[in-house]
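Key result, reporting period 2: structure in, sequence out.
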């Protein structure tokens, strides 16, 4: 079963992907520059932003990750497609 997804769904998912990309890049940078305080501060700010965005997304559209990394409402939401990685 596929839900009809609105423009907001795609915008919020894209915003999450952008923050995730920046976090991956900062992680790689910090692996070689572990003493860069500004990069660590930026990483922590983005990690908090991602946590907030993910929480908002999941409340509105359902879980982003499986195996206990995300909560679900009743009824079980994993039966509903498309999942975030399918769009």
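The corresponding designed sequence is given below.
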């Amino acid at each position: 079963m596929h839900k009809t997804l609105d423009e907001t769904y795609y915008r919020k998912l894209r915003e999450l992907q952008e923050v995730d990309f920046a976090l991956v890049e900062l992680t790689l940078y910090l692996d070689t520059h572990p003493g860069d305080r500004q990069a660590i501060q930026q990483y922590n700010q983005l990690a908090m932003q991602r946590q907030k965005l993910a929480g908002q997304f999941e409340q509105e559209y359902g879980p982003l990750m499986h195996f206990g990394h995300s909560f679900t409402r009743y009824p079980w939401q994993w039966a509903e497609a498309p999942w975030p990685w399918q769009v």
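The chain is about 60% helix and 0% strand. Residues 16 and 50 are 7 Å apart (CA to CA). This case is discussed further under Risks and Mitigation.
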